[in-house]
Design brief:
Elements: E1 8-11, E2 18-21, H1 31-44, E3 46-49, H2 56-64, E4 69-70, E5 85-89, E6 114-121, E7 129-133, H3 134-139, H4 143-149, E8 153-157, H5 161-164, H6 168-174, E9 184-188, E10 190-192, E11 199-201, E12 208-211, H7 216-229, E13 236-239, E14 246-250, E15 254-258, E16 267-274
Parallel strand pairs: 2-3
Antiparallel strand pairs: 1-2, 3-14, 4-16, 5-16, 6-14, 6-16, 7-13, 7-15, 8-9, 8-12, 10-11
């Protein structure tokens, strides 16, 4: 078992992201190691590991060290591990799963605290994932806009067309019983992180439809500005996948966008999500 003195943290960008080496996630980790990883995760928003040849059971065990695993509403998990969702694009498909900027399942009353992905089959090129920092996006806003947003809530829906088409292929082969249900939840536009106390911009292009009490037409100009603002290059980092690479991000303050630039090749990741709280 690796001790804390061998843990190496390489920061990936100014806004977020760190790659961690010097630890083997296959074995039992001590409570001290889990606490250390959690603090690094809180500090950087998304952390990455390389060369972690985890079985499905080991992947689940690692995830459970940080929280309660929850099911994805619309696509069934692996037959023998239903809490693990295959995030896959096949060679003949044109849309990649979740291929727009978003936070995961913001249309739930309690969106996930975190998401973990591990690489199983990787295309020969492309298929990177972009991440963006909600803290940095909020902190860069003017005082006037911060005040405008401070009391607003946003409506988030599972039925926005730009994201529904990114899950059509997976639903066609492994839909859940509620796959055709529209899920809607309202959340603060600016949420306060329950562990750090910092504020993050909490709208996203894939799920947010309008501000609560506003029409979609009234909401669109400001929302479109926020969507572009929150993914400015200086707020982002980029991860290049390899087999047995893992990403673990804080869904309460981090957006992500898988790049769809590997047509004709298969890409398969395994995903778990962890139970979150009600945004405040």
């Amino acid at each position: 078992m690796t001790n804390q003195t061998t843990l190496n943290v390489k920061r990936l960008s100014g806004a977020l992201g760190a790659e961690i080496s010097g630890i083997d996630l296959q074995g039992d980790l001590s409570s001290e190691q889990i606490a250390q990883l959690r603090q690094i995760w809180l500090d950087h928003g998304v952390i990455f590991f390389r060369d972690q040849d985890l079985s499905p059971d080991q992947f689940l065990a690692f995830a459970q060290s940080f929280g309660e695993i929850i099911e994805y509403p619309f696509v069934r998990g692996l037959p023998e591990h239903p809490m693990i969702i295959p995030v896959m694009k096949l060679p003949h498909e044109t849309h990649n799963f979740g291929g727009v900027w978003h936070t995961d399942t913001a249309y739930l009353p309690q969106p996930p605290m975190a998401t973990m992905l591990i690489g199983r089959e990787i295309p020969p090129y492309g298929g990177d994932t972009l991440f963006a920092c909600g803290y940095a996006a909020y902190e860069a806003l003017s005082d006037g806009l911060k005040e405008t947003l401070s009391d607003l809530k946003a409506v988030n829906s599972s039925a926005k067309a730009d994201v529904t088409k990114t899950r059509e292929d997976r639903i066609a082969e492994s839909a859940t019983d509620i796959a055709n249900t529209t899920l809607i939840a309202e959340h603060p536009v600016v949420r306060t992180h329950p562990e750090t106390g910092r504020k993050a911009l909490f709208v996203n292009f894939a799920h947010t439809t309008q501000f609560s009490g506003w029409s979609e037409e009234e909401s669109a100009p400001l929302l479109n500005y926020l969507y572009e603002h929150q993914v400015r290059p200086e707020f982002t980092c980029r991860f290049n996948w390899a087999i047995n690479s893992m990403a673990f991000w804080d869904n309460r303050r981090v957006l992500h966008n898988p790049v769809n630039d590997y047509h004709g090749h298969k890409r398969l990741l395994h995903r778990v999500t962890l139970q979150g709280d009600t945004p405040k």
